[in-house]
Amino acid sequence: MSAFTIFLVLIVIVAFLLVVVIMVQNPKGGGLSSSFGGGGTQQMGGVQKTGDFLDKSTWFLATALIVLILASNLTIGSGGSAESKALDTDEPTEMPITAPATTNDAATTNGTATE
């Protein structure tokens, strides 16, 4: 398993978690934070507010996603097992130019033969 494949799996997992955390949040102050915390008060036991946890986890997951994407970009060239024919430099890239077929333009004018 290549490093790029590992990064790809991690990117998919982090992206899924980021979607879940964003969907749990409510932009109007409701959502998960109001159902547990009572709308802005701290929870029992001195635990942070749920809204703060969701906000921090969103930023952490977004940062982790960006870092994983940049790190996977560095490993793309090192995998090298799937090579593209478009990148081959051994074969010529230009097609040979052939002259178009010519007709006897002097002998015909507007479809009629001249002598």
Automatic annotation (TrEMBL):
Q: Entry's InterPro entries?
A: SecG
Presence of keyword Transcription: no
Q: Name one Pfam family in it.
A: SecG
Which GO terms of the cellular component aspect does the record hold? plasma membrane
Query: Where is this protein found?
Result: Cell membrane
Q: Name one GO molecular function term.
A: protein-transporting ATPase activity
Function as written in the Swiss-Prot or TrEMBL entry: Involved in protein export. Participates in an early event of protein translocation.
In Swiss-Prot or TrEMBL terms, this protein is called: Protein-export membrane protein SecG
**Organism expressing this protein natively:** Winogradskyella eximia
